[in-house]
Design a protein that fits this description.
Number of strands: 3
Strand order of the largest sheet: 1-3-2
Distance between the termini: 27 Å
Order of helices and strands: HHHHHEHEHEH
């Protein structure tokens, strides 16, 4: 497969995941300003903005108190991540099915036990694509590694999972990381 075919396949996969987000992600202007930071506030519902701009330590407290459910928080973060992708090309993969399944489990656990799973209960977390997630691609941005699949979750993801987080998006990594990987591989 050529690099163009791999890139097209990856973009199609990412865009298909974005397409299932409900309600649909708002469209962005065809010509973007240099500063796109005001666009989410103008494009998302006020509650979504409140949730996604809430500091993590406050958000987990609000979820733990029942003020927000894990599902509504996860949906807000999925929509914000999809919009961020349209604005900045920062997402390699959204994980709506996995994330919403996890959020539903967390809400059911909270309803049944009247307590959280852990200190990060319901907190959506995005993960750099080079960190292994079981069953998902693990290519660190290298075309030649496109077909590598993680056999297991990275240790840090297992820790975050046990703490109650929701893994909702996989994001691109900076060019400097790619340079570091290239140097290590070359040695």
């Amino acid at each position: 497969m050529t690099w163009q075919q791999v890139a097209e396949k990856a973009q199609k996969h990412r865009d298909e995941a974005i397409a299932v987000i409900q309600p649909p992600t708002p469209e962005v202007p065809p010509t973007l300003p240099l500063d796109v930071t005001p666009i989410p506030k103008a494009s998302l519902a006020p509650k979504e903005v409140k949730i996604t701009e809430c500091p993590a330590e406050e958000l987990v407290t609000l979820i733990a108190s029942g003020a927000f459910t894990s599902i509504e928080v996860t949906n807000a973060f999925l929509r914000r991540a999809a919009l961020a992708q349209k604005l900045t090309n920062c997402v390699t993969e959204l994980l709506p099915e996995r994330a919403l399944t996890r959020a539903k489990y967390l809400d059911e656990y909270y309803a049944k036990h009247k307590k959280t799973v852990g200190p990060l209960h319901g907190l959506p977390i995005s993960v750099k694509e080079h960190i292994g997630m079981k069953g998902l691609g693990l290519n660190a941005g290298f075309i030649s590694w496109w077909d590598r699949i993680a056999e297991d979750d990275a240790h840090i993801l297992k820790i975050l999972w046990r703490a109650g987080c929701v893994l909702h998006a996989r994001t691109t990594q900076p060019q400097t990381l790619v340079g570091t990987i290239q140097i290590r591989v070359a040695k």
